[in-house]
Amino acid sequence: MGCQGKVRAGLNWLVVVVVAVVWQGGKWGVEGQVHHVVGDDRGWDLTSADIAAWAATRTFAVGDFIWFAYSGGIGQDRVVELKSKEEFESCDLRNPIRMYTDGLDKIPLEEEGIRYFASSNIESCKKGLKLPVDVKSKSRAENEESISIATSEEAALSLAQEPTAPSSSTKICGSIMIIIGGLMLSHVGV
Q1: Which residue numbers delimit the Phytocyanin domain (predicted)?
Q2: For position 182, what pLDDT does the model report?
Q3: How far is it, in rounded angstroms, from Cα 59 to Cα 55?
Q4: DSSP per residue over 28-79, as a string?
Q5: Which of 68-77, 86-95, 159-168 is predicted with the least confidence, judged by mean pLDDT?
């Protein structure tokens, strides 16, 4: 791959990094609040998303928001909030606290505790389309995230390979990438 190809690939990589910094892997936010999009780009859907795996990678804190994105058509998997763990585990949907039907629902997480969300379709709920959200205080959530980041860094370092000496074309392309990155970051205002 020539320098031009490396620059193009580098630009693509830089765009991905900027988007990742802004969006932070399915969540974005300003200081003090994070917006969690349930299921990331797959949304609230039994056939295309593993909601439990998605939730396992998140820390929810007071002041954050969760977003449910789903098809709002008749007979679709809308979202209900349930009162108790028992209702949640048994998919007892008879007396929900609230039903969300817009197809794009923004829900503020205003206090600590566990909230229970499930599909309004009992069959989908029983197949696993449900989400417990353990909302923590800001300080507790920040502590847990810093532990998680440290663990991830250690794992990444243990898998890292020994660096090799860059070629002269890599040095030139690398310089170009630094200049392009600086221009992009100054343009974005980061």
Answers
A1: 34-137
A2: 58
A3: 8
A4: EEETTEEEEETTGGG-S-TTT--HHHHHHT--EETT-EEEEE---STTS--E
A5: 159-168
